[in-house]
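dumping this here so i dont lose it
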């Protein structure tokens, strides 16, 4: 019989002793113990990719900040989730996210229900700390039910991962590099022409901004149902 290599490890988060499984990440253990770490690309039930870097933390003994969503816990490690250094980096990261695309909240369908907007409010970011460098992308409104606006996309890849890992269609991917990067359907075809898309809408509801939304909604009306993933996973476990 093969014995499990998973062990319980004890370490500190903000000077408090916590425990977790050796295969847990710092973010998972922090969530279990009610310690809030900001995230944008992370979503329970999807793989962790560390795309947004909003969950950066300090680890004693390291000069580098590391993403909590991908950092595995270690026995005796000491984690700091909120410090002047961490806050400064998070504000700069958030500024760069805002600067790369067009985020005019007043006319956005997700205004008031946007995770990016919420992060700015919680961190007290009143203006971008870097110059705006965004380019203009064409909006894809070819689908009968949904719209994709790349100008509001933060490239968190939640939509890509949910389409691949949960729906199993893999109709979405990232195309291009840097400021030219965008989410595409199949081989960069209009959404309506995608042969892989099942029109399930999961990508729309896990999107943290107004980049993906339902047709027919006006400013402030789009409410995302991101718990759709955790609900699906729980349903599968109960079968």
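and the seq i came up w/
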């Amino acid at each position: 019989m093969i014995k499990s290599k998973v062990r319980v490890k004890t370490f500190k988060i903000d000077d408090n002793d916590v425990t977790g499984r050796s295969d847990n990440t710092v973010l998972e253990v922090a969530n279990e113990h009610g310690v809030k770490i900001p995230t944008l690309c992370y979503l329970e039930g999807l793989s962790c990719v560390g795309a947004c870097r909003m969950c950066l933390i300090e680890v004693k003994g390291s000069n580098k900040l590391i993403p909590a969503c991908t950092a595995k816990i270690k026995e005796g490690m000491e984690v700091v989730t909120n410090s002047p250094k961490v806050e400064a980096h998070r504000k700069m990261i958030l500024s760069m996210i805002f600067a790369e695309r067009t985020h005019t909240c007043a006319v956005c369908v997700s205004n008031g229900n946007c995770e990016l907007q919420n992060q700015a409010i919680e961190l007290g970011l009143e203006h971008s700390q870097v110059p705006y460098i965004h380019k203009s992308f064409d909006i894809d409104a070819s689908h009968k039910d949904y719209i994709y606006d790349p100008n509001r996309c933060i490239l968190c890849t939640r939509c890509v991962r949910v389409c691949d890992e949960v729906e199993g269609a893999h109709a979405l991917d990232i195309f291009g590099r840097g400021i030219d990067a965008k989410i595409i359907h199949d081989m960069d075809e209009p959404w309506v022409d995608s042969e892989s898309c099942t029109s399930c809408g999961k990508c729309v509801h896990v999107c943290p901004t107004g980049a993906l939304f339902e047709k027919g909604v006006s400013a402030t009306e789009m409410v995302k149902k991101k718990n759709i993933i955790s609900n699906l996973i729980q349903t599968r476990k109960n079968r």
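The mean pLDDT is 93.
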